[in-house]
Design goal:
Strand content: 15-25%
Number of strands: 10
CATH topology of one domain: Thymidylate Synthase, Chain A
Largest sheet: 8 strands, mixed
Helix content: 25-40%
Number of helices: 8
CATH architecture of one domain: 2-Layer Sandwich
Distance between the termini: 26 Å
Structural class: alpha/beta
């Protein structure tokens, strides 16, 4: 069983995310181990052989972004599912906790996503709610766009818990804007962490779907903005390229926002992207396809 951290350092100008993907595929062929979990996102898969997975544990790599801010460069290198990834990123950073949004219907692998919506047509969580959690879960009806969210608020369509922001153990919830405001003022801080996995996701408190992403950490060293992206779980075949691209886009977006706040950020460039995944896996049916065609 492979239970060691797999480190990479692709920091030269010759290295690309494409090369990382190809190298990782070789690791799957040589080092992955077979796992059949009891559940997948709250669904019993114990009797479904196609849901057997091949897993790399504690997969980690760091890739130098080399100061490149050109989005087309990263589209060509990472090869995400487009235009979905770009459209969904704009949905994530819209500033409103819309649920379910629009782009879940357009994700290439989202044919079963509708099964996870509740009787009101909403998901138990999504990235828009986790990026902007202060007022998440307050509306009774699903919202698809920021405009729809704004239109619902004046008409009193709030849950019985009230209209105030969420309150944590001691303080109100922070959101992505709070992180940016703090990072812009404290670029060397080690505290600029933004959580996606919340306490309500622990154990069977809510059950069902849980975020794969744990959160993001940002910091500046040597005039470069770096990002650390840990995940509890990632599907190498269906998710990894989009997860990487959406996180690189987030770094570039945060960098632009910090420049708007403080002109000293004008000289800061993209630094490194570090990803750690406790379980990087491929399901059996996808493994067969990849063995025939290679990684996407």
């Amino acid at each position: 069983m492979n239970n060691r951290i797999i480190p990479f350092n692709y920091l030269s100008g010759r290295d690309t995310f494409t090369r990382i993907r190809d190298h990782t595929w070789n690791l799957f062929l040589s080092q992955s181990h077979r796992v059949h979990t009891e559940k997948w996102q709250g669904v019993d898969i114990s009797a479904r052989p196609e849901m057997v997975s091949y897993e790399l544990m504690n997969y980690t790599f760091t890739h130098g972004l080399r100061g490149i801010e050109d989005l087309q460069h990263w589209r060509d290198d990472i090869q995400p599912n487009l235009p979905w990834a770009d459209n969904h990123f704009l949905e994530r950073v819209c500033g409103y906790p819309i649920n379910p949004g629009v782009e879940w219907q357009n994700w290439p692998w989202g044919e079963s996503a509708d099964n996870f919506r509740d009787k009101n047509g909403m998901f138990n969580h999504n990235y828009m709610e986790r990026y902007w959690p202060k007022y998440a879960g307050r509306l009774k009806e699903p919202t698809r766009t920021p405009e729809e969210y704004e239109n619902r608020v004046p008409w009193g369509h709030w849950r019985s818990v009230g209209v105030g922001p969420h309150f944590g153990i001691r303080n109100d919830y922070g959101d992505l804007d709070d992180l940016i405001q703090s990072l812009a003022k404290n670029p060397l801080s080690r505290q600029e962490w933004f959580p996606i996995f919340h306490p309500e996701d622990v154990g069977e408190v809510v059950g069902g779907r849980k975020p794969c992403s744990l959160g993001y950490q940002f910091w500046v060293r040597g005039g470069r903005l770096h990002i650390y992206y840990p995940l509890r779980s990632c599907d190498f075949f269906r998710h990894m390229q989009d997860d990487i691209y959406l996180t690189v886009r987030l770094l570039l977006w945060v960098l632009d926002r910090c420049r708007e706040i403080d002109s000293t950020w004008d000289t800061v460039k993209p630094g490194t992207f570090t990803m750690h995944c406790t379980s990087l896996h491929v399901f059996a049916n996808d493994m067969v396809q990849m063995q025939k065609e290679g990684p996407r």
